[in-house]
């Protein structure tokens, strides 16, 4: 039988073993957690195009002498300069594999104009073995000190924003990298870890130099060689260039290529009732409380929302309608029609709201100036982010059609910025959607990264069709 001393010794030795220490000290890596979530979302991307066939430099131009194909691998030989895509890209996801040499230096230029300098006329994302001897000096005690700036390590936007380190593989192994570049959002995943996640509009270059390329919205993708031997393979791009401001629908509720229908024209599949009017309180609901609230909300939905001749129709009584799925960044087409005097809106990520109303409704007109400013602002037209306080809450132009006629929105949301086209006219240009539910602060609590889209009830009949969405990577 094990005596007390033997048991105590066994317990102590187990607790003090390296395995126990490693298990106790090992903490989840946020970069890997976010990387896993991002890569899982990217599994839904289906429009990948191969940019390298493993045989020749089809799809590429530039330094076609120093960049060669060897055994299915694209090799930048010593002395290599710039090889760029023949096509230019605005919004995209780019994925590739690379293998470094000791101290090897290259770069990934994005949105670089023809003949432009990657780091200044576009953006240069470092491809670099920053661990190499070339970038370190020895100290008196035999140590090593890096001589690079923080914004020169692998994955950094050169001169602008530093990347996290610690995720490069050994020199004899292939690294996998994915770059998301949508509007001002740039995100880099290296070997499963997010090493950079930045919004360009919010950045001040850390090198304090002028980088006009941060405002560039289209250009070539480049491998910007710095005379070192670097290898590449499995190079793919998915194009997410902005969609046309308006579309012609040949058959109602049938989505265009690349989009998914949120409404099938037959029933309320994919939709749910509004479980709570206050999104903050709705998000706190869990378990049985959430199930019960959703059951009640779905009952109200089925009483007042219906499908009539392929049109999603609201009776004017009840509550708002919500998507069953949450959405982050996206493009969203929606056709809508209202009767005279009606009022509605569209919530993005559960947040109010893109305004829909009748600009010709005179209920709030000043008696001495029927075309002047109304108290509600409805005379300015639909499309404004009405609940904003700091950022603009009004449309750029009035683009509504008369009540009883069909209107069409294209809504593009990236991060907290929203662009809106109404009947083909730009009415909101990359304007911040403020967090309406931040009631105590100054609307400075960030929006949820993903949440439901809602069709707002405001006590009037409403009609919707052709609801098509394209999710954008983030």
Commentary on this structure:
This protein has helices at residues 4-15, 18-25, 30-42, 118-121, 279-284, 287-304; strands spanning 48-50, 60-62, 67-70, 73-76, 82-85, 92-99, 105-112, 123-128, 136-138, 144-146, 175-182, 185-190, 193-199, 220-224, 230-239, 260-261, 271-273, 305-308, 311-314, 321-323, 329-337, 343-348, 351-357, 407-414, 417-422, 425-432, 454-455, 462-472. It is mainly beta and 474 residues long. It folds into two domains: 25-239, Jelly Rolls, CATH 2.60.120.560; 260-472, Exo-inulinase, domain 1 (Jelly Rolls, Sandwich). Strands 1, 3, 4, 6, 11, 12, 13 and 15 form an eight-stranded antiparallel sheet that branches. Strands 16, 18, 19, 21, 24, 25, 26 and 28 form an eight-stranded antiparallel sheet that branches. Mean pLDDT is 93; it is low at 1-23.
Uncertain segments are 1-23
CATH fold name of the largest domain, please? Jelly Rolls
Strand content: 25-35%
Please work out how many helical segments DSSP would assign. Answer: 6
* Form type: elongated
For the residues shown, what is the average pLDDT? 93
CATH-assigned homologous superfamily of the largest domain: Exo-inulinase, domain 1
- Output the structural class: mainly beta
Give the key terms.
2 domains; 6 helices; Jelly Rolls; 8-stranded antiparallel beta sheet; 474 residues
């Amino acid at each position: 039988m094990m005596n007390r001393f033997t048991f105590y010794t066994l317990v102590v030795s187990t607790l003090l073993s390296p395995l126990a220490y490693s298990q106790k000290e090992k903490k989840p890596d946020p970069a890997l957690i976010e990387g896993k979530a991002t890569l899982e979302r990217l599994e839904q991307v289906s429009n990948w195009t191969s940019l390298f066939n493993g045989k020749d430099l089809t799809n590429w131009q530039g330094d076609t002498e120093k960049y060669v194909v060897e055994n299915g691998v694209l090799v930048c030989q010593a002395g290599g300069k710039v090889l760029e895509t023949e096509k230019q890209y605005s919004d995209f996801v780019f994925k590739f594999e690379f293998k470094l040499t000791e101290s090897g230096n290259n770069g990934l230029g994005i949105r670089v104009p023809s003949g432009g300098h990657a780091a200044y006329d576009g953006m240069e994302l470092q491809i670099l073995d920053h661990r190499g001897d070339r970038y370190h000096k020895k100290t008196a005690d035999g140590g090593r000190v890096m001589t690079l700036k923080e914004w020169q390590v692998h994955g950094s936007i050169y001169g602008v924003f530093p990347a996290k380190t610690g995720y490069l593989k050994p020199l004899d192994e292939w690294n996998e990298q994915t770059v998301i570049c949508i509007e001002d959002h740039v995100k880099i995943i290296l070997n499963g870890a997010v090493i950079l996640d930045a919004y360009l509009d919010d950045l001040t270059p850390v090198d304090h130099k002028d980088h006009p390329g941060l405002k560039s919205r289209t250009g070539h993708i480049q491998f910007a060689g710095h005379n070192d031997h670097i290898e590449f393979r499995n190079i793919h791009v998915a194009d997410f260039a902005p969609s046309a401001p308006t579309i012609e629908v040949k058959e109602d509720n049938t989505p265009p290529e690349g989009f998914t229908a949120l409404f099938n024209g037959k029933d309320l599949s994919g939709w749910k009732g509004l479980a709570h009017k206050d999104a903050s309180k709705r998000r706190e609901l869990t378990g049985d409380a959430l199930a019960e609230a959703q059951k009640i909300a779905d009952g109200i939905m089925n009483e007042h929302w219906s499908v009539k001749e392929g049109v999603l129709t609201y009776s004017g009584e009840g509550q708002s309608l919500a998507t069953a799925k949450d959405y982050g960044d996206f493009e969203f087409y929606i056709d809508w029609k209202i009767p005279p005097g009606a009022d509605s809106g569209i919530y993005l990520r559960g947040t109010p709201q893109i305004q829909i109303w009748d600009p010709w409704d005179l209920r709030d007109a000043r008696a001495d100036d029927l075309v002047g400013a109304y108290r509600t602002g409805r005379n300015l037209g639909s499309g404004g982010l009405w609940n904003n306080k700091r950022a603009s809450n009004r449309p750029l132009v009035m683009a509504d059609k008369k009540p009883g006629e069909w209107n069409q929105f294209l809504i593009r949301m990236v991060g907290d910025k929203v662009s809106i086209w109404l009947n083909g006219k730009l009415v909101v240009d990359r304007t911040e959607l403020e967090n309406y539910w931040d009631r105590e602060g100054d609307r400075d609590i960030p929006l949820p990264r993903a949440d439901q889209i809602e069709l707002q009830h405001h006590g009037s009949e409403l009609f919707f069709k052709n609801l098509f969405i394209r999710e954008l990577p983030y």
